[in-house]
Amino acid sequence: MPQCLIPNCPNNANHNLGIRCRRPETTAIWSPNCDAFLCDDHADQGYTIDITLIPDTARTITTRVTAGGHMEIRTTPISHDSIE
Description:
Layout: E1 15-18, E2 21-22, E3 28-30, E4 33-38, H1 40-43, E5 60-67, E6 70-77
Antiparallel strand pairs: 1-4, 2-3, 5-6
């Protein structure tokens, strides 16, 4: 089981952060998990989340999740179009 993303937390973590872009009817165009995990205690804590969008033509979504200097990076291909 992964370690909690929060620095100095000794807990195992099973809550995977993700981000989603939804169509108006709520189905997802993309919704990658970030491979950044929180333990039960930290999942219930509450957060301020900053999102920076940088346009890219590679049809991938790259997420960078940081907490206290630790960063998890994951790149996922987009497999759906915005119009279906």
